[in-house]
């Protein structure tokens, strides 16, 4: 890597930011699409392992679609301001958003969301699949999921589990676990799962359903113990860790996924073009390697499959939220 | 002279530390607003605090401190409050709010030039031409630095153009 | 000698041409974003991540780290020159730093900030070399109860830091806490004090609040003063601090460095508390204390040393434990993982060239920053020659861009307008804003940790005094409160006797 290469890499991005910032609302002709750089809104704070997915995707989608894709963080609670920005943008296919399960959790969790996920947005493709990891404090006698379950049932109300906040996937996975097994444990929310590891190593937090990216540094040298992953098949970065399903909790499936969405009014031919480029980008070995390092796997889909997927996820979490009486005000 | 004004003049004579007095009033105002807003949040118990516990406790403390300040200011001597110049402050604050209203629909260039001209208006010895030149120059500089070089998501031009 | 061998590895890595270049690029970029409003190290690092994936992990870490500590230098420049703190940790620098600038001593203020930061950075780097593992153990011992008690201690220190009435200072801290807890409550998800505005769901934005109080309200105050312009341009004075200045500041720099190195290790507000703590400590310890708040050079030296030392040692929990102490560190962990490196205790043994190379580069980066910044002092000082009638609209304009660009949220501008009026009243009523800012930043952390510790103890408040570290902090807080209250009581008695 030298400076010249760096400049070459930066120059188009700098140039295109000019275009992106001055949206030209010409009627988008599907055959000439894409005629200018595409803006990919990432509705969460920059940094952290999850940002990596969005930025890697932007880079390689740009290569397969033939125009630069510029990632832009528009932060705000629950990803709502960023998503709403895309909902309200011109439906020309030049403004897209990548969202996580908060997309379909928010409508049940929050009193109001300014847009309707199923009416105002359409899925272009799925992006990835990454399981959560059930990790326990090293002081816990349990070495397997079965032992953990026995231990948890024998100590009702004594265990704590941490999460990245109310209504986040680690929280809901914990609630779903409690609902399906009858285990009684206290939920302790943090501002990010990474924050809770100090308390887990000190034994103050007994277990957590952590993102794989968050867990990796701590499980690698056994400072916390991974017992199971929450996907239905084993995860590549945890080949020796069983799935919850294998370990005895049949059908337990929690995924920290992302989907690429566009405003609902974007014409189908344009969506088809982006989808085609997405499928190509997600099949690249570079993308696979980059995702794998943070415990994610690229998963592409057709728009219809993507729509069915988020619908089923919506139903799944709606039930967990309602049964657990989890509601924000 | 109305009765209220007589009462006020009497009070004013007894306020010996105006800075403390008005600080106290300000604290009480914030405390009251906070406690009113926090009425709807569940208190919980000391063991399992609800979202209303901390705001209520803080609001109560702040109100108490405000009350003590007010009472004390009637007895202990203190400094007078300097003259409040309403005009420059309100002009600048309005400019800031205008920037907030204009930025998204009209873009950085227009919003920035307007806020800087409004602000310049607040200064006594501002010169119109100079202010315009400065505003335009800074707008150009900001577009170059923040949008082009640093790629911050700011619209440059009005969205309808 | 392990230590020397390690350093040798480190400098061997850091002194290659490529790494020196990346180090320079990092600190230069850091200085720039530290000076500019609305873009901080977090955003910069995030934007550079995709480019840096293609770099060698060592060069990447060296550059990203440079951005982080370079921004600390840049932040103090604006704090001194135009009274706008770039980051929470440079809020205290405005107290004496900006006063010095108004007295025509901006040069020495900037100079001592650079020298103090360099010294502190060097010591902190050495500290990481020698004591990273034991210091990391401290961070591991900090649970919610310990954090809560530490923050109580910090808030009382903020009261000490204020001039004038103790009661008013306590009130201002409590008000800061109240403002800080606005927004979505982490424990329950309830949106507090948002008054129906979705733009406030994440609370009051720090940048908008601090720019309102320090930037805009200050402008309004300045506009009222007659001959303000003459006052600023009258005496630019010396550009460099004298030997006497440096000698005068040495104890302050030393104390700031020690405090900063220790507190910086603690994730969440460590470096911030260090800057406030260092200033408070100087105010209590240094003789004569009366000049603090009126442009005392030690009031710049101590917090600047502390925040830079803290910025360096905040790498300890990241490098040795894999625990992010702030958002920038979280991103660096992400960056390391992309390269297949899991930050944790094993990095030091498995990737010594990375660990020691990064540490050596931090020292080199600090040296570069001094070399870069000292000549810039002359240029910055010239900025003060700009007539105020031109300077203040520019300040207002930059504050607006900064407030918006932080979150792309127009509500932040209305928040800024509101708090500029509030800040103006505070200044008129002699309510100092620095304790407010500390309360504001610590408010949510304090509440979260208190509630978390009580959640874990199932509601037993005794947990706060059963943990020895927590108990120590609470005792220290009580002692500190007595120290604060004692002179006030003493004074009152004297007054009563006189009357």
SSE blueprint:
The complex is a heterotrimer of chains A (329), B (161) and C (499).
Chain A lengths: L2 H19 L16 E5 L5 H18 L3 E5 L6 H8 L7 E5 L2 H8 L7 H4 E9 L2 E5 L8 H10 L4 E5 L5 H13 L3 E5 L7 H5 L5 E5 H9 L4 E5 L14 H4 L10 E6 L4 H16 L1 H8 L4 E2 L4 H21 L6
Chain B lengths: L2 H12 L3 H20 L15 H21 L12 H21 L1 H15 L5 H22 L12
Helix pairs in contact in B: 2-3, 4-5, 5-6
Chain C lengths: L1 H13 L2 H19 L5 H12 L4 H26 L8 H12 L3 H35 L3 H18 L4 H15 L2 E2 L6 E2 L13 H19 L3 H7 L8 H22 L5 H16 L12 H16 L1 H7 L5 H12 L8 H4 L1 H32 L4 H20 L3 H18 L4 H24 L6 H4 L1 H31 L1
Helix pairs in contact in C: 1-17, 2-4, 2-17, 3-4, 3-15, 4-5, 4-6, 4-13, 4-15, 4-17, 5-6, 5-13, 6-11, 6-13, 6-14, 6-17, 7-8, 7-12, 7-20, 7-22, 8-20, 9-18, 9-19, 9-20, 11-12, 11-13, 12-13, 18-19
- Strand % of chain A is 15-25%
N-to-C CA distance of chain A = 50 Å
> CATH class of the largest domain in chain A, anyone?
Alpha Beta
CATH superfamily of the largest domain in chain A: Bordetella uptake gene, domain 1
SSE order of chain B, as H and E? Answer: HHHHHH
Assign the structural class of chain B, choosing from mainly alpha, mainly beta, alpha/beta, alpha+beta, or little secondary structure: mainly alpha
The largest pleated sheet of chain B is described as:
none
The main pleated sheet of chain A reads as:
6 strands, mixed
Helix-strand topology string of chain A: HEHEHEHHEEHEHEHEHEHEHHEH
| Proportion of beta-strand residues of chain B | under 5%
**Strand order, sheet with most strands of chain A:** 2-1-3-10-4-11
Structural class of chain A: alpha/beta
Mean pLDDT of chain A comes to 86
Low-confidence stretches of chain A: 6-28
Helical amount of chain A: 40-55%
Low-confidence stretches of chain B: none
Determine the most extensive contact between two protein chains: B-C, 78 and 72 residues
Please give the radius of gyration of chain B in angstroms.
24 Å
Counting DSSP E segments of at least 2 residues, the number of strands of chain A comes to 11
Briefly characterize the structure.
By secondary structure, chain A is α/β, with parallel strands linked by helices. In chain A, 43% of the residues lie in helices and 17% in strands.
Mind explaining what this structure looks like?
The complex is a heterotrimer of chains A (329), B (161) and C (499). With 329 residues, chain A is of the alpha/beta class. Chain A has helices at residues 3-21, 48-65, 80-87, 102-109, 117-120, 145-154, 169-181, 197-201, 212-220, 244-247, 268-283, 285-292, 303-323, and strands spanning 38-42, 69-73, 95-99, 121-129, 132-136, 159-163, 185-189, 207-211, 225-229, 258-263, 297-298. Chain A has 2 domains: 34-129 and 257-323, D-Maltodextrin-Binding Protein, domain 2, CATH 3.40.190.150; 132-247, 3-Layer(aba) Sandwich (D-Maltodextrin-Binding Protein, domain 2). Chain A has a 6-stranded mixed β-sheet with strand order 2-1-3-10-4-11, sandwiched between helices. In chain A, strands 7-6-8-5-9 form a 5-stranded mixed β-sheet, sandwiched between helices. In chain A, β1, α2 and β2 (69-73) form a beta-alpha-beta unit. The longest helix of chain A has 21 residues, at 303-323. Chain A is globular and about 65 Å long. Chain A starts with a helix and ends in a 6-residue tail after the last helix. Chain B has 2 domains: 3-73; 86-149, no CATH class. With 499 residues, chain C is mainly α. Helices cover 77% and strands 1% of the residues of chain C. Chain C has 22 helices and 2 strands. Chain C has helices spanning 2-14, 17-35, 41-52, 57-82, 91-102, 106-140, 144-161, 166-180, 206-224, 228-234, 243-264, 270-285, 298-313, 315-321, 327-338, 347-350, 352-383, 388-407, 411-428, 433-456, 463-466, 468-498; strands at residues 183-184, 191-192. Chain C has a two-stranded antiparallel sheet with strand order 1-2. The longest helix of chain C has 35 residues, at 106-140. Chains B and C meet through α2, α3, α4, α5 and α6 of B and α3, α8, α9, α18 and α19 of C.
């Amino acid at each position: 890597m030298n400076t010249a290469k760096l400049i070459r890499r930066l120059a188009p991005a700098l140039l295109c930011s000019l275009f992106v910032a001055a949206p030209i609302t010409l009627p988008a002709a599907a055959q000439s699409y894409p005629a200018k750089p595409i803006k990919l809104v990432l509705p969460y704070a920059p940094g952290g392992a999850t940002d990596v997915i969005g930025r890697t995707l932007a880079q390689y989608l740009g290569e397969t679609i033939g125009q630069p894709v510029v990632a832009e963080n528009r932060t705000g609670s629950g990803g709502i301001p960023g998503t709403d920005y895309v909902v309200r943008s011109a439906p020309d296919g030049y403004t897209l958003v990548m969202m996580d399960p908060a997309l379909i959790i928010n409508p049940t969790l929050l009193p109001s969301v300014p847009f309707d996920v199923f009416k105002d947005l359409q899925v272009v493709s799925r992006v990835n699949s990454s399981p959560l990891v059930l990790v326990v404090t090293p002081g816990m006698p349990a070495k397997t999921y079965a032992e953990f379950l026995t231990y948890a049932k024998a100590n009702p109300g004594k265990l704590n589990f941490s999460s990245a906040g109310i209504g986040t996937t680690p929280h809901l996975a914990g609630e779903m676990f409690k609902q399906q097994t009858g285990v009684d444990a206290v939920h302790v929310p943090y501002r990010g799962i990474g924050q809770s590891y100090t308390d887990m190593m000190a034994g103050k937090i007994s277990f957590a359903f952590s993102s794989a990216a968050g867990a990796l540094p701590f499980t690698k040298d056994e400072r916390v113990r991974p017992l199971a992953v929450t996907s239905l098949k084993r995860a590549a970065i945890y080949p020796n860790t069983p799935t919850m399903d294998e370990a005895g909790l049949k059908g337990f499936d929690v995924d920290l996924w992302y989907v690429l969405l566009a405003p609902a009014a974007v014409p189908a031919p344009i969506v088809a073009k982006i989808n085609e480029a997405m499928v190509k980008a997600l099949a690249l070995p570079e993308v696979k390697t980059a995702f794998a390092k943070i415990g994610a796997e690229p998963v592409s889909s057709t728009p219809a499959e993507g729509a069915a997927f988020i619908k089923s996820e919506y139903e799944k979490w709606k039930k967990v939220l309602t049964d657990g009486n989890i509601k924000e005000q | 002279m109305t009765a209220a004004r007589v009462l006020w003049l009497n009070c004013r004579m007894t306020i010996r530390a105006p800075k403390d007095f008005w600080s106290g009033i300000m604290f009480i105002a914030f405390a009251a607003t906070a406690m009113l807003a926090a009425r709807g949040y569940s208190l919980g118990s000391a063991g399992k605090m609800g979202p209303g516990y901390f705001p209520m406790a803080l609001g109560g403390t702040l109100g108490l401190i405000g009350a003590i300040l007010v009472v004390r200011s009637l007895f202990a001597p203190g400094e007078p409050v300097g003259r409040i110049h309403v005009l420059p402050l309100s002009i600048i604050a309005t400019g800031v709010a205008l920037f907030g209203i204009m930025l998204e629909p009209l873009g950085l260039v227009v919003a920035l030039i307007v806020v800087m001209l409004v602000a310049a208006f607040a200064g006594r010895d501002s010169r119109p031409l100079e202010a315009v030149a400065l505003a335009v120059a800074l707008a150009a500089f900001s577009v170059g630095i923040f949008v082009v070089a640093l790629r911050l998501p700011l619209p440059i031009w009005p969205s309808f153009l | 000698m392990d230590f020397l061998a390690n350093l040798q590895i480190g400098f061997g890595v850091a002194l290659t041409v490529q790494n020196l270049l990346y180090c320079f690029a990092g600190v230069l970029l850091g200085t720039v974003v530290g000076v500019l409003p609305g873009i901080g190290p977090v955003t910069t690092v995030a934007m550079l991540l995709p480019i840096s994936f293609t770099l060698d992990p060592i060069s990447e870490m060296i550059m990203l780290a440079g951005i982080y500590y370079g921004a600390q230098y840049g932040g103090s420049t604006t704090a001194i020159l135009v009274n706008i703190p770039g980051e929470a940790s440079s809020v205290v620098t405005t107290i004496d730093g900006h006063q010095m600038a108004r007295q025509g001593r901006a040069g020495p203020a900037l100079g001592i900030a650079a020298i103090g930061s360099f010294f502190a950075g060097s010591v902190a780097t050495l500290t990481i070399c020698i004591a990273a593992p034991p210091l990391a153990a401290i961070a591991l011992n900090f649970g919610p109860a310990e954090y809560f008690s530490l923050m109580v201690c910090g808030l009382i220190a903020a009261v000490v830091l204020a001039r004038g009435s103790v009661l008013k200072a306590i009130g201002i801290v409590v008000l800061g806490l109240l403002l800080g807890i606005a927004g979505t409550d982490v424990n329950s998800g309830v949106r507090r004090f948002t008054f129906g505005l979705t733009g406030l769901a994440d609370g009051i934005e720090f940048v908008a609040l601090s720019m309102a109080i320090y930037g805009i309200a200050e402008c309004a105050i300045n506009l009222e003063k007659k001959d303000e312009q003459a006052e600023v341009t009258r005496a630019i004075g010396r550009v460099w601090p004298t030997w006497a200045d440096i000698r005068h500041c040495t104890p302050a720099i030393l104390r700031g460095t020690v405090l900063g190195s220790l507190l910086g290790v603690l994730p969440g507000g460590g470096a911030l508390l260090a800057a406030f703590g260092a200033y408070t400590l100087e105010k209590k310890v240094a003789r004569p204390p009366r000049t603090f708040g009126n442009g005392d050079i030690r009031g710049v030296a101590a917090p600047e040393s502390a925040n830079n030392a803290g910025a360096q040692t905040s790498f300890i929990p990241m490098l040795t434990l894999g625990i992010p102490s702030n958002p920038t560190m979280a991103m660096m962990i992400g960056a390391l993982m992309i390269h297949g490196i899991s930050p944790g205790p094993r990095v030091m043994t498995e990737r010594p060239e990375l660990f020691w190379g990064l540490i050596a580069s931090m020292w080199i980066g600090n040296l570069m920053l001094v070399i870069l910044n000292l000549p810039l002092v002359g240029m910055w000082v010239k900025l003060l020659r700009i007539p105020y009638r031109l300077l203040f609209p520019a300040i207002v304009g930059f504050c607006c861009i900064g407030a918006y660009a932080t979150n792309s949220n127009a509500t932040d501008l209305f928040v800024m307008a509101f708090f500029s009026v509030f800040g103006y009243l505070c200044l008129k009523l002699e309510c100092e804003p620095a304790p407010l800012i500390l309360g504001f930043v610590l408010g949510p952390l304090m509440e979260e940790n208190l509630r978390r510790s009580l959640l874990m103890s199932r509601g037993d408040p005794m947990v706060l005094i059963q943990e020895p570290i927590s108990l120590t902090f609470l005792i220290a807080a009580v002692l500190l409160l007595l120290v604060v209250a004692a002179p006030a009581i003493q004074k009152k008695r004297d007054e009563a006797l006189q009357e």
